[in-house]
């Protein structure tokens, strides 16, 4: 018997697996893990499971939360794949010479990717931003100028690490070796 995976996924989608069960399972697992770690309700796993199930079921009732979870996870999966491809390419080109300076670049790329995954709807091609991000052009220009100013100061001063070396986070400032 030949299985058509497209039909299988369509039937699973019809059962609500992707829209309800997987988001419920994700919320349940995260809440359960947090309750197990912080032990706010004691060490009883049954109580943690009941509270996690209640929170998961309440969250699944809200269609907007489901929409956000589904969009965020699909976007973040794309960002993770892109970061892994980026790291593979850097590893192939640079070898073992890559140090801590690349970590800042990777963190920056990851943060931009997470921001994009949270607030960009790929299919509609629009940004879904909270109201406090909807700024006028003058305010956006001022914020950009402040950000550039902070980045320039960070590059010149360095990462705040003491020591004999006079290096910024991205390049050597003085001629010392």
Explain this structure to me?
By secondary structure, the protein is mostly helical. It has three domains: 50 residues, no CATH class; 58 residues; 43 residues, no CATH class. It is 69% helix and 2% strand. The protein has six helices and two strands, in the order H-H-H-H-H-E-E-H. A two-stranded antiparallel sheet has the order 1-2. Helix 2 runs antiparallel to helix 3, helix 2 crosses helix 4 and helix 4 packs antiparallel against helix 5. The longest helix has 32 residues. It starts with a helix and ends in a 20-residue tail after the last helix. The C terminus is likely disordered.
Supply the key terms:
177 residues; 69% helix; extended; single chain; disordered C terminus
**What is the strand content?**
under 5%
The ordered H/E elements are: HHHHHEEH
* Largest sheet geometry: 2 strands, antiparallel
Number of strand segments:
2
Name the shape in a single word: extended
- Low-confidence segments, given as residue ranges, are 166-176
Contiguous helical run count: 6
Give the number of domains.
Answer: 3
Report the end-to-end length measured between terminal Cα atoms: 69 Å
Global mean pLDDT: 75
- Strands of the widest sheet, in order across it, are 1-2
Report Rg: 23 Å
């Amino acid at each position: 018997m030949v299985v058509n995976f497209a039909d299988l996924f369509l039937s699973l989608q019809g059962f609500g697996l992707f829209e309800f069960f997987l988001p419920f399972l994700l919320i349940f697992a995260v809440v359960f893990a947090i309750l197990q770690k912080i032990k706010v309700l004691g060490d009883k796993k049954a109580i943690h499971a009941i509270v996690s199930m209640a929170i998961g079921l309440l969250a699944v009732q809200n269609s907007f939360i489901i929409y956000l979870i589904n969009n965020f996870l699909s976007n973040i999966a794309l960002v993770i794949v892109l970061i892994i491809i980026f790291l593979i390419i850097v590893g192939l080109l640079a070898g073992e010479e890559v140090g801590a300076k690349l970590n800042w670049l990777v963190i920056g790329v990851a943060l931009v990717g997470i921001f994009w995954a949270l607030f960009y709807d790929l299919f509609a091609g629009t940004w879904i931003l909270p109201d406090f991000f909807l700024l006028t052009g003058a305010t956006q220009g001022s914020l950009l100028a402040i950000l550039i100013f902070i980045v320039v100061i960070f590059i010149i001063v360095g990462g705040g690490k003491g020591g004999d070396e006079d290096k910024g986070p991205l390049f050597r400032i003085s001629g010392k070796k």
